[in-house]
Amino acid sequence: MAGWVKRTIHPPPAVDVATPEGWERVPVEHTELVAALAGLPAGTFRPSLVVVSYFSDEPLPRIALRAAQEAQQQYEDPLLIASEPLEHTGRPGRRLEFTYRIGETTVLVRRWILKLEQRCLDVVASSTVGQVPLVRGHFDAMMASLHWDEAAA
Question: CA 18 to CA 125: how far, in whole Å?
Answer without folding.
Answer: 14
